[in-house]
Amino acid sequence: MVISTILTNSLLLFQSMCVIVLAAYIVTRSRYFARLTAGDASWKNQAALLLFFGMLSIYGSIIGIGTLGAILNVRDLGPMVGGLTCGPVVGLGAGIIGAIFRLNAGGFTAITCSFATILSGLIGGLIYLKRGRFPGIVPSVVFAGLMEIFHMIMTLALAKPYSQALVVVEAAIGPMTLINALGVLLFTFVVSNFLKERETEDERDKYRKELERKEAEISLAADIQKSFLPRRIPSVPGFDLAATSLPAQEVGGDFYDFIPHAEGNLGLVIADVAGKSVPAALFMALSKTIVRTNALKQSRAAVVLKDSNEVIAAESSSGMFVTLFFGVLDEKTGSLVYANAGHHPPLVFRDKDARFDALLVTGPALGILAGSRYSQNQITIEPGDVMVMYTDGILEAVNPEGEQFGAKRLRSIIAGSQNLSSEELLREIVQGVTNFSAGQQQFDDITALVVRACSRDEAVE
Amino acid sequence: MEIDKKLVGNIAVLAISGKIDAVTSRDLESALTEMLDQNSTRVVIDLKEVDFISSGGLRVFISFKRKLVERKGDLVVSSLQPFVMEIFEMTGLPSLIGTYSSQGEAIKSLQS
Which of A13, A178, A392, B109 has its CA 20 to 30 A from that of B19? Predict the structure, then answer.
């Protein structure tokens, strides 16, 4: 008999907990709860939730589990969790609904029980108000336990007759405190999971938006940077020019430039700013402007680099520097006067004897040291010769085995290019590097500028 | 990349090993900033075990050298492998940062 009662009661208890978890699940999935906990405490949301928690309180009364002389209930639970998770209006409202239902049921504890239900919702709501939000699982469970003990003490103090009240309270105080605390634990656990989940989602959305914004900005920056590169390759009688720049990331630090000078002279620039991505791109914009401004003022290569270095060194507090080759090509004679600020020496392939000349460094990279001196040299690009200016992204491209592309491979491509136009040779070089580093991520910016002096037969045509 | 620190008198000696590339140069930069915070102003960087340095790595050296000079200190490097030496020379870095063939010589240059 006793065992079957215990079993029945345990089952009822278990069922009621299932209902509570289900209620918690439903309420957290409702848009009213989502909106209210997101800060939209409109009357409509509050009213809907108030009704919901009021119904939960009524359910808590109906479920009443009879034990030795007392009927256990979870009537206070609805208003408590309503108040704790949605604030005083919902808590108090749900408490009143639960209380009215309880009053109608009558009995000698009707008044104290109804009052306790209202108080549960109100205090739960006040805790919410004080914290400004759902206070969390542990405070909620502690509150539920204390509330039930208080409920019992109040019954003792107010319910008449006292002797009967004592019997009821003695039997109920332990189990009531336990099941209400357990119910609140389950309910707030579900709610707390929901809130955490949403917080994570909000965070994720925020990061996603931030990322989208940054991507949009960087793609705009990439467009702006592209506009810094010459839009057209100038046409120079007797010469065939081509150039390209492929940043490893959206923006990069490599650049090339063509600077027109009087009397058929053309300034050629190729440069590589230290580092990659945005910092390099910013410094690229600065250096390009400075070099261009100086090169337009006068055409002595060494002086252009010296003057540019002074300005760039003064601007470079972060140690940024740029390696830069500047040459002035005379289209009538094929003479190239150049100065090289720490840049990888451009290669000139001589058609006559299939030999390479390297246009070596004539001073330190721009920005390293104010007061640096630069010298200049002169060569002549003879008909049929090809000059390739490039950045280290080509030499340092690695294949899956970790091997670098290197100068040797570059030279062999150039040496095998006699019949190609500059454009075709450029494509061969880029293709060569891409094939070599097949599948590997492009690690550094790749930039190259090709100048081919047309052979005599072509010039005649 | 790994950094090994020691003190010879009041000269800090940093022996670096590995590659100084776009990624590791950031670690190097924070290690060097830490040295500035500890008021080490005379520094030798030993590059004996470094087989690659990127332009971003060179930038870190230049920036550190300037900061040390501002604090009346100095930076020298020692024991450069051929590839690293080539990059240093091509870029013209030795005009700013003293290079020595051994750690001992580098330390001596800062003692005088």
Answer: B109
